[in-house]
Amino acid sequence: MTALLIRDLRLAMRAGGGFGLGLGFFLILAVLVPLGVGPDTGTLALIAPGILWVGALLACLLSLDRLFALDHEDGSLDLLATSPIPLEGVVAVKALAHWLTTGLPLALAAPVLGILLNLPGPAFAPLMLSLLLGTPALSVIGAFGAALTVGLKRGGLLMSLLVLPLYVPTLVFGAQAVSRAAQGLDGSTALLLTAGITAGSAALLPFAAAFALRINLR
Amino acid sequence: MASLWEYANPVKFMRLSGWLMPVSALLAAGLIVTGLVWGFFFTEADYRQGASVKIIFLHVPSALMAINAWAMMLIASLIWLVRRHHVSALAAKAAAPIGATMTLIALITGAIWGQPMWGTWWEWDPRLTSFLILFLFYLGYIALWSAIEDTDTAADLTAILCLVGSVFAALSRYAALFWNQGLHQGASLSVAPGTRMDWAYKAPLYLCMAGFALLFLALVLAGTRTEIRARRARALMTRERARA
User: Fold this and answer.
1) What is the phi-psi region of residue A16: left when phi exceeds 0, alpha when psi lies from -120 to 50, beta otherwise?
2) Which element (helix H / strand E) includes B43?
């Protein structure tokens, strides 16, 4: 399983792997929003938590369609399915690799973009913390969506239609944690709920995703 | 006594639904027409909301069926996953567009009602928002069905999407409550004590709700029958082609 993790990380880092694309997307979004809504710092501070969370969510979505598709095309997914590691474990490792290459960098980069969007001071720590706690859920839910659509041509668009509604609770709780902190309120309930969704998804969704993969490999 | 599972046999299902569908359709038409005519023309206008309250006779039944259609799809998906009865998978498929339409009717009648009462067509209220999200779930489910050619694969994948989607739809409902306190009133039809609706409204409303439930049943049966017939036709065509 460690070997699989290292392999996936290497593949993501290499040219064409798309590492950093998500970060670039995140940065461009944080630049485009002020250009769209105007440079008024008050407005920006108000919408910054939501924009950063939506941006992180879309950046995660961007790299999801390659999660299983590449391995499916060259046949290594069939090999992984017949390997001694259970398919649930393969899904979990792939989701972890996806998080390490997208969710984690996004969470680390988010405070910088928070400065661009004039995020209020007390909200920086909750922003990073909520992204750290919430983005693993995005990767696991995304792995489920990618497993559903792996065999399909043009599955990417369909996958976003399937995955984005599933992202709603994570987005609500994650963004609430930040915006409550930005207003000087206590955001810890929202933070705990975000972590709860991550824990629940990480525990259950690999089974659903592996089930979907087995059907698609049938 | 015949077991329920006998109707997993398509032939028996077709025989049963052959008379159940028209009967429930006729009953539904009778109940809805009676309920709406009673509700629209033979009830007093509300002292505060005036006549606009009467859209409740469309709004509440469609919202009720919007949620229950998803619940029915969930049960049908479970039956398909556990017992592999094709009729069940096809019934879930048939229910999805009907549920989506009911959700849309509830949203649109709600907007029409909300405009004079709240002064807005749309408000990011938890109930409204969760219905919009439910509509998105329906869209994704329908899109997944139509994207996959092999029917058994499609049935399996949509069933698992329905299971996972149900959990996340419920989570979204409570997330929306956490997110915003809304304008929409609480339940006025409930066994719990509190402000209740008068029987003058309740009676026609119950008729409409029963009518919508039967309408849903008739539509699902019609959709499932269509799917079964389409599958038979496909099988026949394959056989013909194999012979030629």
Assistant:
1) left
2) none
Do the beta carbons of residue B161 and residue A148 sit within 8 Å?
yes
Arithmetic mean of pLDDT, A115-122 = 85
Q: Tell me, what's the pLDDT at A18?
A: 64
Domain extent, residue A33, equals: 2-217
Q: Angle, nearest 10°, between helix axes A124-148 and A87-98?
A: 140
**Choosing among A57, A88, A148, which should be mutated to test the B contact, i.e. which has the most B CBs within 10 A?**
A148
State the angle between helix axes of A168-182 and A41-62 in degrees (0 to 180), rounded to the nearest 10. 150
* Token digits of residue B236: 């026949």
**A194 Cβ contact list (under 8 Å, min separation 6):** A130, A133, A134, A137, A170, A173, A174, A177
The answer, yes or no, to whether residue A214 has pLDDT greater than 70, is yes
The stretches in chain B having pLDDT less than 50 are 1
pLDDT grade, residue A202 (50/70/90)?
very high
Which candidate in A215, A216, A217, A218 is best for mutational testing of the B interface (most B CBs within 10 A)?
A215
CA-CA distances (angstroms) from residue A3 to A95, B29, B194? 15, 64, 61
Q: What's the structural domain count of chain A? A: 1
- B153 interaction partners in chain A (CB closer than 8 Å): 151, 215-216, 218
- DSSP, collapsed to helix, strand or coil, labels residue B50 as strand
**ipTM of model:** 0.88
Using an 8 Å CB-CB cutoff, list chain B residues near A168.
133, 168, 171-172, 175
In order of start, what are the domains of chain B with their CATH numbers?
21-180+197-232 (1.20.120)
Task: Yes or no: say if B95 and B138 are a contact pair by the CB < 8 Å rule.
Answer: no
Residues on chain A touching B100 (C-beta within 8 angstroms): none
Q: Please report the pLDDT score of residue B192 as a whole number.
A: 56
Nearest CB neighbour to A172, from listed B144, B164, B178 = B178
Enter the DSSP assignment of B242.
Answer: H
Q: Which residues of B touch A213 (CB under 8 A)?
A: none
Q: Give the nearest partner residue to B148 out of A152, A193, A218, using CB atoms.
A: A152
